[in-house]
């Protein structure tokens, strides 16, 4: 059973590995990740957050049941136009902060069958994907936050553990 890795577990700072095998194991992992994401009321989850250092991200769909998997996702364009949102993260329970990100991105990724997709994404989904893809590079929202809006004390206590 997968379990959420919380800060400051070192796995969250590692660069995830490219996925080359598109098999049943990968599909099962994506399904398990989507379950744990929904159980914890998340909107997206990256594999390093369940202690698996691979380039896989799942995002919840609007029906709050199904999900979309992004394998080896790579952002090829970031718009200069930015938006600021309050972000949280399943790896940082009870901590929130304001993060500025691009409003639009171009994304290259593979699906669970290994098929390559190139898409343009904007607004909320673009912001969530930027957050999740950061996880694949060991970058966390606290690195980008302009301001911690909730849980500053908690965060300081966690940082002191490193
Ligand atoms: Zn996160």
Characterize the structure shown.
The chain has helices at 24-39, 123-136, 141-144, 152-159, and strands at 44-46, 56-60, 67-78, 82-87, 96-102, 104-110, 116-122, 145-150. The protein is built from four helices and eight strands. The strands form two sheets. The protein has a five-stranded antiparallel β-sheet with strand order 1-2-3-6-7. It is globular. It has 162 residues and is α+β, with helices and mostly antiparallel strands. Strand 6 and strand 7 form a beta hairpin. The model has no long low-confidence stretch (mean pLDDT 97). It has a single domain, classed as Peptide deformylase (Peptide Deformylase), CATH 3.90.45.10. Bound molecules: zinc ion.
Features:
single chain; alpha+beta; Peptide Deformylase; 5-stranded antiparallel sheet; 3-stranded antiparallel sheet; 4 helices; globular; binds zinc ion
